[in-house]
Design goal:
conserved putative lor/sdh protein from methanococcus maripaludis s2 fold, Helix Hairpins, 390 residues, alpha+beta, 10-stranded mixed sheet, Elongation Factor Tu (Ef-tu), domain 3, single chain
Length: 390
């Protein structure tokens, strides 16, 4: 019996020693993988729709005709009669050059003219005397013709000297810069004491009359601006609304900004002052609105340096990342320029908890359909019927 008790005690001791070892082995064994939950997502079917957001362009009011006025002759500027922003009348003197040299030139031309007249009178008297001698047959006909030729040459010199005198007098009158029409001085480009060349701009004058709203339009919005199309012009800060029509669209883009300049003729009795800030909004009919693919901003995510969306594969119910190119915004939605095709299904909510190849299921609210009403459709997209899921 003692041997039996000893054997039982030995077995109990071995069992007690093996329990910690089994527990240690159980702790070191790999645990069973946790299955990734199937997430419920909202999806939209990609469709093209018209852009609803109105386009606005910022510009300024400019004169329809703005001239850079300069002297027709060169000289030293001795006086400037107008200041920046001053209103001038037609015929008003704007600036003057030193006229001394032109006065001396006119005096010299006057002296040449007087000498030519004297020579002409002498040739005329000589011709008259020789004509009388010819009538008495004291001289030959050839000698009379020679005197007649001298008279014609003297008369030509008189005409030349007279034209030269008139030209020099005109040169002297050009030393006064005169406004051709009424307007407003918008710039002063020369100061007193400066020597200017002929044609060099001295004063910039905005003529009274029509005014334009001038602004720049990017190439993708150029289709909204057509010659003769109507636009609304709002003057800041008074918010005065004026009617306008597109009068001119630049034929080439600016080499630096790559935008096109557009001029809109303003209409109304009380036009805004020059340089005023305005916003121009084109009037676009529903049928003329451009078509584009639009997505809610909740469907977009950042994938590295690119913008991407999750595209659903209806057969496997898995999602894959699709990079897209965003052109602009239309209200609260993003306009997709490239990366998607019509008919594709895009995840519209919950995009930040998904991973490539992950299985998903379509989400539906638990409330009754009659109470919740039909699902809303985003502009340019169509909702997809979904199944219940958690």
């Amino acid at each position: 019996m003692s041997e039996l008790h000893a054997l039982r005690a030995h077995r109990l001791a071995r069992a007690a020693l093996s329990l910690p070892l089994l527990a240690l082995l159980a702790a070191c064994s790999p645990s069973a993988p946790i299955e990734e939950p199937v997430r419920a997502v909202k999806v939209l079917t990609v469709r093209s729709g018209s852009l609803e957001a109105s386009q606005e362009f910022s510009g300024e009011v400019r004169p329809r005709i703005e001239s850079r006025l300069g002297f027709r002759v060169a000289g030293k500027l001795v006086s400037r009669e107008v200041e920046l922003g001053e209103r001038v009348k037609a015929g008003q003197v704007l600036a003057r050059l030193d006229p001394q040299d032109y006065r001396l030139a006119a005096d010299a031309a006057q002296a040449q003219y007087a000498a030519a007249v004297t020579n002409r009178d002498l040739a005329a008297a000589d011709f008259k005397r020789f004509k009388e001698l010819r009538e008495q047959n004291f001289i030959s006909g050839a000698e009379l013709e020679r005197r007649e030729a001298n008279l014609k040459a003297a008369q030509a010199q008189v005409d030349q000297a007279q034209a030269q005198l008139a030209s020099q007098r005109n040169q002297g009158s050009y030393t006064a810069l005169v406004a051709d029409t009424a307007g407003v001085v918008t710039a002063v480009e020369a100061e007193t004491g400066q020597v200017v060349s002929a044609g060099q701009p001295v004063v910039r004058l905005a003529q009274d009359g029509g005014r334009d709203a001038v602004f720049a339009v990017p190439e993708d919005k150029l289709g909204l601006m057509r010659d003769g199309s109507a636009v609304d012009v709002r003057v800041w800060p008074g918010q005065t609304l004026l009617a306008g029509k597109v009068r001119e669209v630049s034929a080439s883009a600016d080499p630096v900004t790559r935008t096109y300049q557009v001029k809109v003729g303003l209409q109304g009795r009380e036009l805004p002052p020059l340089g005023a800030t305005v916003t121009v909004q084109p009037k676009v009919k529903n049928g003329d609105r451009p078509q584009a693919i639009k997505l809610p901003t909740s469907a977009l995510r950042q994938d590295g340096q690119a913008t991407a969306v999750w595209v659903l594969d209806p057969r496997t119910m898995t999602v894959s990342s699709q990079p897209v190119q965003i052109a602009t915004a239309d209200g609260n939605e993003a306009v997709v320029a490239a990366g998607l095709q019509e008919g594709q299904q895009v995840v519209a909510a919950g995009v930040h908890v998904l991973s490539p190849g992950q299985k998903v299921m379509l989400w539906r609210e638990k409330t009754a359909q009659s109470l919740s009403g039909p699902p809303q459709t985003a502009v340019g997209t169509t909702s997809v019927p979904v199944a219940n899921g958690k």
